Predict the structure.
Amino acid sequence: MGAPRTYQTYAVIIKGVRIGEVDKIVTIYTPELGKLKAVAKGAYRPGSKLGGNVEPLTHSLLMLARGRNLDIITQSQTIDAFPVLKSDLWRMACALYVLELVDSFTMERNENRPLFDLLLNALKWLCQSEDSEIVLRYFELHLLDYLGYRPELHRCVICNSSIKPVINFFGFGQGGILCSSCGQDKPAAHSISVEALKVLRLWQRCDYATARRVVLKSELALELEQVMHGYIKYLLQREVKSIAWLEELKREVTC
């Protein structure tokens, strides 16, 4: 017996692309199927029942019909539209960065329920938190963990020696920490302070409730951002587009 003609799934809407006058191809992330693309027919038609239910940064319950190439969204219901994110430019930029990371790192129809839960939680945390830097760094670390890119933070990935409490290095190409000796030979490695390494180690193993209690001074927050962005850029072999918008918004705040 073949797969059912229709199916229902919860989904976080990642992005949408207009096709024709009123239709839309929507990229969604689901708990059972991972990432997939589907057609929302008539989504741009005035009064469409799909409409806002298939807008990015929306958690929806969808009914889909299997199609020859792309499945078709036939019914939709918004579970959470995250109005706090959509009414605050900085929070929105952070949330779109989170969506872009998921889209960039995942293949279609590859189930990863822990990643779906992490994505949904990250959007909720961004609504609630006053420190988005912690949310983003915690999300990045655990996204990489769930996708098989967990960085080694306890032993040198080259010589396997224990890491001493001195300035060490993060080797993007090596996937983790290099001791102070091995890191000297790797010009592309990024130096990492004792405090930054402590924070990354904590966040890698703790829950978010514990992670959010860390107080980040601006210098430490910048160092953690540079290390994580450097590793992500190496893995993707390109910059994440949303970062440019985040940097621009930061500059506007400091001017």
Summary: The beta strands are 6-19, 23-30, 34-40, 59-65, 71-80, 168-171, 176-178, 190-192. The chain has nine helices and eight strands.
